[in-house]
Amino acid sequence: MINTLIKNIQEKNAPIVVGLDPMMNYIPEHIQKAAFEEYGETLKGAAEAIWVYNKGIIDATYDLIPAVKPQIAMYEQFGIEGLIAFHKTCAYAKEKGLVVIGDIKRGDIGSTSTAYAIGHLGKVKVGSKAYAGFDEDFVTVNPYLGTDGVKPFVDVCKEENKGIFVLVKTSNPSSGEFQDKLVDGRPLYELVAEKVVEWGNECMGDTYSNVGCVVGATYPEMGKVLRKLMPKTYILVPGYGAQGGKAADLVHYFNEDGLGAIVNSSRGIIAAYKQEKYASFGEANYADASRQAVVDMIADINGALGK
Amino acid sequence: MINTLIKNIQEKNAPIVVGLDPMMNYIPEHIQKAAFEEYGETLKGAAEAIWVYNKGIIDATYDLIPAVKPQIAMYEQFGIEGLIAFHKTCAYAKEKGLVVIGDIKRGDIGSTSTAYAIGHLGKVKVGSKAYAGFDEDFVTVNPYLGTDGVKPFVDVCKEENKGIFVLVKTSNPSSGEFQDKLVDGRPLYELVAEKVVEWGNECMGDTYSNVGCVVGATYPEMGKVLRKLMPKTYILVPGYGAQGGKAADLVHYFNEDGLGAIVNSSRGIIAAYKQEKYASFGEANYADASRQAVVDMIADINGALGK
Fold first, then answer.
1. Per the domain annotation, does A292 fall within a domain?
2. Among candidates A78, A107, A177 on the partner chain, residue whose Cβ is nearest the Cβ of B133
3. Measuring CA to CA, which residue among A111, A105, A177 is closest to residue B170?
4. Which of A152, B102, B183, B301 could form a disulfide with A181 if both were Cys (CB 3.0 to 4.6 A apart)?
């Protein structure tokens, strides 16, 4: 699956991913109103609004971008109905030729991680049949439980030609609380990075591994070190834009081949119409504002990379 | 919510929780057959089988136990239909007076953790209304992202009188890979434990905090140390029985008041009928076998505690 992601990135000359992390207050009034008129102010109404909003953004941007990254929490908060919207969003993005990175940050003991891996990347057996529950292309994985919590995901990736991104250094302010702690003089996230390489060696694509990692844009010095420590590991980079990460900081997340990193923006794209810069599009044309924000983000990052 | 859990434990004299982690191969033939006849060999058929199976176990054990702990991965692997069975199971267990611990091991950056916390412990706003998505009483939380990934759960616990159990030292074989790494001479899990105490101080019940932790039964020496480090923290203890933890090992997970720990068993209870010891019940009477396994587990643990 990493081969497909790289092919998409190269064809579109866009090392970016759009984070589909809908919040009710991002969704334009006319979409909310229509959904609530049809289903009432219910979980189903909220889910319908989210789905229509996402579809608008996908339709307006899919020709420019290689991938989307829906954050499942934003759907899960609306219970079953929200998860139906998540599932529809993933399926629709795939129909449009996009790689879908499910930002689920799961991770548990072995048999339980197997269930998550099957549910999101594989197929579950029911009697003589087998079904894909959610069917993303990649998912994010939390490594706190160690190898036997991550390996089941790697095994399913091998069987199904899928991929994962393992959390190494997250973008949030307190990520250092545990991740930066020194173990024999080296930060814990470097130990995790070494394991990512080990897990990834088992599951290589042509030039990069199907086991990628997450390193926040907000810690560029660490990103630089981690890039070198994991030369064949794709880095999913959250934290650009709204969280404070800048394109110039991200250059060292890439390898000399111009590959090796994919930068996420969520709010900055999907709620672009709320920014002063894109306000002229107006709320009704939120999707066009998102398209322009994608164009600008690609130019910003490719500019920093000298492409 | 910790007060309610403790009250349930005391009334039933049973410091245990039944892990509702259904696997298809645990579910008796007659239940699978009936579900598949009604819905076919589909995700809906599987979900129906899981729900009927769970209901049987709850009906046969609810008067003996204080709580259940459904592991959401086992449902999520069946996609939306599986999650509907999870939701029904949680709601039914609550109807029967049980405390529901959602074993979800979520954890993310601040705004995303807020969404998880709202979805599982709180209420989400939809226009002028508010709805509970899944509505467990407690959930398990992964601490790898640090304080700003955990605090949103604590905040929702305060508002809604709910609780969490934060992973400190998990029961799986490779849990030590990162959790045991020495930081200034002390294992990482102790640093996490100190944070658990800090987070918990903000959210106290009468005698224990609503912020509990997870420490596996498979590491009794560490459990002993952690018990003392976190005197007011309830410990959720997985790993008893099938994973190898023994009652005698668990004594030190409890405080001198006889409280402070709740021991989980999943397979050992819900698939008891498959063990030689309970085989005489027969597959048709799987729920009676589960009831006997609960009686035996309570006696085993109370025996070790000298109760």
1. yes
2. A78
3. A111
4. B183
Tell me the residue ranges of DSSP E strands in A145-282.
Answer: 163-169, 182-183, 186-187, 211-215, 235-237, 261-265
Residue corresponding to tokens 């499910």: A102
Of A71, A79, A120, the CB nearest to B112: A71
Asked if residue A133 lies in contact with residue A179, where contact means CB atoms within 8 angstroms, the answer is no
Residue A306 falls inside a structural domain: no
Q: Which domain holds residue B178?
A: 2-300
Of the candidates A188, A101, A94, the one whose C-alpha atom is nearest the C-alpha of residue A146 is A188
Chain B residues with CB under 8 Å of A195 CB are 177
Q: Is residue B221 part of a domain?
A: yes
Q: How far is A186 from chain B (nearest CA, A)?
A: 10
Q: For residues A278 and A288, what is the distance between their CA atoms, to the nearest angstrom?
A: 9
Q: Which of residues 133-172 of B touch A (CB under 8 A)?
A: 133-134, 142-149, 167, 170-172
**pLDDT band at residue A246 under the 50/70/90 scheme:** confident
The tokens describing A284, both together, are 């009704």
Residue B306 maps to a domain: no
Find the catalytic residue in B55, B88, B105, B232. B105
Identify which of B89, B86, B62, B69 has the alpha carbon closest to the alpha carbon of residue B8.
B62
CB contact under 8 A, A73 and B147: no
Q: What is the pLDDT averaged over residues B236-264?
A: 92
Cβ proximity of B29 and B283 under 8 Å: yes
B79-B84-B85-B90 Cα dihedral, nearest 10 degrees: 130
Does position B307 have pLDDT exceeding 90, yes or no?
Answer: no
* Complex ipTM more than 0.90, yes or no: yes
CA distance to partner chain A, nearest, from residue B282 (Å): 22
Whole-model pTM?
A: 0.98
Beta carbon pairs, A and B, within 8 Å: 225
* Domain harbouring A214, CATH code: 3.20.20.70
Spatial separation of the C-alpha atoms in residues A193 and A184, rounded to whole Å: 15
Q: How many domains does chain B have?
A: 1
**Terminal CA-CA length for chain B:** 25
Taken as a whole, chain A contains a residue count of: 307
Q: CB distance from A34 to chain B under 8 Å?
A: no
Q: Quick check: A38 and A47 in contact, CB under 8 A? A: no
CA distance A46 to B126: 6
Cα A64 to Cα A20, A53, B23: the distances in Å are: 15, 18, 42
Q: Closest CB to A174: pick one of B80, B131, B148.
A: B148
Q: Which of residues 246-305 of B touch A (CB under 8 A)?
A: none
Q: Is the pLDDT of residue A242 over 80?
A: no
Look at residue A245 and tell me whether its pLDDT is greater than 80: no
Average pLDDT over residues B85-106: 98
Q: Which DSSP symbol is given to B251?
A: G
Strands A124-126 and A129-131: antiparallel
A185 touches chain B (CB under 8 A): no
CA distance A137 to B298: 44
Q: Half-sphere exposure of B109 toward its Cβ, with a 13 Å CA cutoff?
A: 19
In the numeric block, which tokens belong to residue B187?
Answer: 């294992």
The tens digit of pLDDT for each residue in A191-208 reads 999 999 999 999 999 999
